[in-house]
């Protein structure tokens, strides 16, 4: 399996573009899957530099509705005429943020032009194996509540804004040599909850690698410590966190996981 970070907030060299967004390319078992599309076409430009042909992508999986994960989708669909887009129907609801003291739309840019690419969308309601060994999880078990990091995010409901419970979110996990590889977008529902969901479904306890955001960049020190303690209970061999994780959280997670954590910069490839 080869995993390539096509876009992130940070880049590992000046050759690549970076932006507040996330896009990861996964090449596994003869298939190519794109996990999120950043907020612009920057991931496409980086793919060209990296020699990755996005015309060969079989599936695009959208982790949730926010623009920094879905903003580049239209450019991708124009480039690639065949790939199916895997997402939850709740992605089509309008999302808002009040983090800057005013209301701003942060939802799926193609929401109002949904019909334009309607035949490309594949709405998912239950766990599905889209590629042999690669599963999409639209239902996340949530014994741990992470609302503390999301109090500024809202969803539109009948003309009013209500706190977002992130019913649009999904994640992925691959079974690779009887070990798990976990992919998160922002983990609004809790990164530990995603891990537990994947373990319960596959009955595999060893996590060979995990990559993506943890949404701990706005969390308090204690909240980060609590998450780190929970992650330390899992058998995680290696992790590359990025995007919405935050330096404080990554440093603490590195300590909790005994140094097996690094940053997943744009332009970085991992072989698992």
From TrEMBL:
InterPro entries with a match to the protein in the record: DHPS-like_MBL-fold, Metallo-B-lactamas, Metallo-beta-lactamase_dom, RibonucZ/Hydroxyglut_hydro
Pfam families: Lactamase_B (PF00753)
GO-annotated molecular function: transferase activity
Start and end residues of each Metallo-beta-lactamase domain: 20-188
Name under which the protein is recorded: 7,8-dihydropterin-6-yl-methyl-4-(Beta-D-ribofuranosyl)aminobenzene 5'-phosphate synthase
Species per Swiss-Prot/TrEMBL record: Saccharicrinis carchari
Lineage summary: Bacteria, Pseudomonadati, Bacteroidota, Bacteroidia, Marinilabiliales
């Amino acid at each position: 399996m080869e995993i390539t970070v096509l876009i992130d907030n940070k880049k590992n060299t000046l050759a690549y573009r970076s932006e507040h967004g996330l896009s990861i390319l996964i090449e596994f078992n003869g298939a190519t899957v794109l996990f999120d599309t950043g907020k612009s076409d920057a991931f496409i430009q980086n793919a060209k530099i990296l020699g990755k042909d996005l015309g060969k992508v079989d599936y695009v999986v959208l982790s949730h509705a926010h623009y920094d994960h879905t903003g580049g989708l239209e450019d991708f669909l124009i480039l690639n005429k065949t790939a199916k887009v895997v997402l939850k129907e709740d992605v089509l609801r309008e999302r808002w943020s009040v983090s800057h003291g005013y209301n701003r739309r942060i939802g799926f840019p193609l929401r109002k032009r949904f019909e334009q690419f309607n035949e490309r969308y594949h709405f998912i309601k239950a766990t599905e194996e889209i590629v042999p060994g690669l599963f999409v999880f639209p239902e996340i078990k949530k014994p741990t509540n992470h609302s503390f990091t999301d109090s500024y995010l809202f969803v539109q409901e009948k003309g009013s804004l209500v706190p977002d419970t992130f019913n649009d979110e999904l994640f992925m996990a691959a079974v690779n040599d009887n070990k798990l590889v976990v992919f998160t977008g922002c983990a609004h529902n809790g990164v530990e909850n995603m891990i537990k969901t994947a373990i319960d479904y596959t009955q595999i306890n060893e996590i060979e690698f995990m990559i993506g955001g943890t949404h701990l960049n706005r969390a308090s020190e204690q909240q980060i410590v609590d998450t780190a303690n929970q992650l330390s209970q899992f058998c995680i061999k290696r992790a590359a966190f990025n995007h919405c994780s935050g330096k404080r959280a990554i440093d603490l997670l590195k300590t909790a996981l005994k140094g097996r954590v690094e940053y997943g910069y744009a332009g970085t490839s991992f072989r698992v």
